[in-house]
Amino acid sequence: xxxxxxKSDRAQAAGKxxxxxxxKLIPVYVMGKRYEVPEGFTIMKAMEYAGYRFIRGCGCRGxxxxxxxxxxxxxxxxxxxxxLACQKTVEPDMYITQMPFFPVNxxxxxxxxxxxxxxxxxxxxxxxxxxxxxxxCSKACPQGVEVMDAIAALKRGDISEAARLSFECIQCGLCxxxxxGELAQYHMFQLARRIYGARILVRAEHLADMxxxxxxGKYDGILNELKNMKEDExxxxxxxxxxxxxxxxxxxxxxxxxxx
Length: 260
Ligand code: SF4
Ligand code: SF4
Ligand code: FES
Fold this sequence. Notes:
The protein is α+β, with helices and mostly antiparallel strands. The protein contains eleven helices and seven strands.
């Protein structure tokens, strides 16, 4: 949710405000209301500059949490555009509205009951087959995910491919907001990746061996030794640590192999 704040809160909300004389202000419309904001600001910073405070719809500010989905349109263009508010910079006369949450269907399931059978995904998300292959989802994705292809993979039961194609998904929901078939693509992708990770991906034997070694106390001695060290000793030990060279090959090993 976003609430509008008093003008006196602007400077604090937007961080250090640039010198007015050094900054070109451009007009934008936030939920229909006109504001003058500095050119070059992201939509998020511009909204904060205009006096809005993000209570929800803002997380990482770095394009990775997917919280700041935004819808906008430019003058003279019929086209509705979507973007992440923390990434997209403002343009003159842009009409902006925030979409911090998009209500979609998220199937309820007990993961331990699921196998890797595609039919289980079909049963949980039958709307998968409402996809009409319009590709509006892929065009909307700020992460460059080939959303339609990932959905097509799921439709043909290829969970591994759907998981691979959707790996960069940050669950912003922008694809869903544009979907003609009203699919919640990102929830389907999350399920695909869960199934892939837990049921399809081959287990790493060396990891299992290491977990066993930890359980059997292989590292208890060294950990206790480290815990009993003084801060200065720890810092010195850290400085002297052997660092893997950039050019190290696959078979590189440190001189001290006791803890491998
Ligand atoms: S696939 Fe959809 S939810 Fe995921 S990042 Fe792309 S647009 Fe956002
Ligand atoms: S927007 Fe919806 S209907 Fe269109 S291709 Fe993507 S998933 Fe299918
Ligand atoms: S705030 Fe996290 S993606 Fe924009």
